[in-house]
Each structure stands twice: as C-alpha cells, then as structure tokens.
Amino acid sequence: MTQWTPGWSEASPAASDFVLAVADGQIARPREGWLHSWEAIEPLTTGALGPVYVGQFSDRPVFAAEVAVAGLPQTAELVSLRDALILTEQAPAELLSTGFQVLQWWRDHQFCGRCGSTTQSHPRERARWCEICSIPWYPRLAPCIIVVIRRGDTLLLARSSRIKRHFFSLIAGFVEPGESIEAAVAREVKEETGLDVTGIRYQHSQPWPFPHQLMLGFFADYAGGELVLQEDELAEADWFRPGELPPVPPVTTISGRLIRSMEEEILASGTSS
Q1: Beta carbons within 8 Å of 198's beta carbon, 6+ residues apart
Q2: DSSP alpha helix (H) spans, 50-178
C-alpha cells in the first residue's frame, strides 16, 4: 500500500521528487495520479510560494508549490480541493490536506504578525522565523467539533444554508477560547438546533484544510428540546432512520464516517424510539 508520511525538511527538491502543484487555488492534476515531478513542474512555479517540503509519498520527497495556469500541459486538470476530498474516493486526502495547509501557512506568514518584517524559514522546525522579534510563527490549527446526535433509532442530519451541494451532514463548529471540546459540542448543538445533548463521546478526528481545521468527531444522545434552527447556519434538519437517509457525504470525510458508524450502532442495538 502506498504510504504517505508528513514531515519537515529544509531540503530543496531534486528533479525526480514529487510536487503537489496548486494553480489559482486548485490542484493542477497530471494525467495520472495527483503529483508531478519537480523536473516537469519547475518552469511553471511562480516563485513566491514554494516549493515547500510537506512529507514523503512512496518513499519519495513531496513538495507543494504554486504554479501558473498558463503553460500547464493540456492534459492537466484543475480540481478544487473540496471536490477532490468529497467526490473522489481514491484521492490521497491526507497528502492533499497537508500540502494545502502548509501552502496557506506559508502565504499567511511571509511577514511577521508583530512587526511586519519579512520572515524566514526556521532552521530546525516547521516554522517561519522573525529575526527582529525572535519569534516563530507555526502553521495554524483551529480545533472544530462535529457531532452526530442519536434519538432512539434515529439520528439528526442537517443541511447547511451556505453550501450549494444538496446533501445533509452534521452539526459542526469551532471551539472557543477557554472551552473544552465537550462544552463546544453542547454549545454548538444548542445554538444551531435548540436541542440539549448528553453522553458526549469522542470517536475520531480528521484534518480539514478549509483552511486549517482539525475536526474532532463525536457521538451524543438527545436529551431534550425541539428543533429551532439557526437560519444563517442551517437550511433544514430532521431525524432519520438507518437505511432511510438523504444524500450524505462519502466515507472519505469525517462526517460520512460518523454517520455510517452511528447507523451501525443503531442497527446493532435494535433500539426502537
């Protein structure tokens, strides 16, 4: 099985090293696979961002770099990161997520947030370094919760008011400063749906590079309340039984895995509402 290992290095790419090419905010995908060789893509790099080392794929170094659309081979395909992660089951999700997040960090921290001076690569770790302030700027990660709520033999699914794709997903939101992740689950559910939950239990996590979230997935049990939707967040929401779900995200996403895991739990328990 092909192995992806994220990592840090000051190395520059060799001709045969892999490159994740990003053009106009999209993946510039070659005819086959998702990565180019540095030899093939180097003439197209813009120079401002990258190449920056992001890890190893099949025991070969991988870099991420921004490239110009003009000059891309006619066989290259531009694919949005969201489409790659949601619609393409064979996409190397962790590799693509890491590459985009590192490039976003590189872009956002070209200058020191304290004094405005140009930053440099840190010599010993993945960080941008301000010589004047003697301060490192690390890649930003924003913890977010995402939760599937169970009521008897049903689970709650909701459709976002801000995403055009017509599928149902889960309640999610950012963790606030000074807040535990369990408290964030209860607060986000209450704010967006008017419901109270109990039995909050962690399941698994997934990096989500839009632009730099770390999604923390939970199960929770319905404890009371009526559905009152936060309209700027949710267009609709309802309770669904396993086998009777509307369109939902694929299992390549944390929401898809949580939904299917909850379906399995409900079916295994044989609970009736």
Answers
A1: 220, 221, 223
A2: 81-87, 93-108
d(CA 202, CA 218): 4
Provide the token pair at 63.
Answer: 């870099």
The tens digit of pLDDT for each residue in 115-128 reads 999 999 998 899 99
Q: Where are the alpha helices (DSSP H) in 47-132?
A: 81-87, 93-108
What is the per-residue pLDDT for 91?
87
CA distance 262 to 223: 17
Residue 273: its pLDDT value, please?
A: 43
Contact status, residue 13 vs residue 54, Cβ threshold 8 Å: no
Overall pTM surpassing 0.70 (yes/no): yes
Give backbone dihedrals phi and psi of 20, rounded to 5 degrees, phi first: -85, 110
At 241-262, the pLDDT tens digits run: 999 999 999 888 999 999 999 9
How far apart CA 97 and CA 84 sit, in angstroms, is 10
Distance CA 61, CA 11 (A): 9
Cis preceding-peptide flag for 139 (omega within 30 of 0): no
47-59 residue pLDDT tens: 666 799 999 999 9
